[in-house]
Specification:
The chain has 90 residues and is an all-alpha fold. Pfam families: HTH_35.
Length: 90
């Protein structure tokens, strides 16, 4: 393993995210419903980039989304990747 691979942090496994939520006495479905979404909607953030969903999950865990999904927020040199939450047009 080269130095770059050693320095690159790994994203949390989806099961670890679910377990962390359970340790906080909640579930992915409950967080989703509390945000006004369908109970299964936040599961999308576990498998594909979705800044809004990532933020909701991270907020429920009391940490930054970039801590859960570093590969979605930082490039291979450790520089932050700009990401924005899209807002609905009125």
């Amino acid at each position: 393993m080269n130095t770059e691979q050693q320095n690159q942090r790994m994203d949390w496994h989806p099961a670890d995210i679910i377990a962390a939520l359970r340790k906080r006495n909640t579930t992915l479905a409950a967080v989703s419903r509390a945000a006004g979404l369908s109970s299964s909607t936040l599961a999308n953030a576990l498998i594909r980039p979705w800044p809004k969903g990532e933020r909701l999950i991270a907020d429920a865990l009391g940490i930054q989304a970039s801590e859960i999904w570093p590969n979605r927020y930082f490039d291979s040199q450790g520089r932050r990747i700009p990401r924005e939450i899209r807002h609905k047009k009125s």
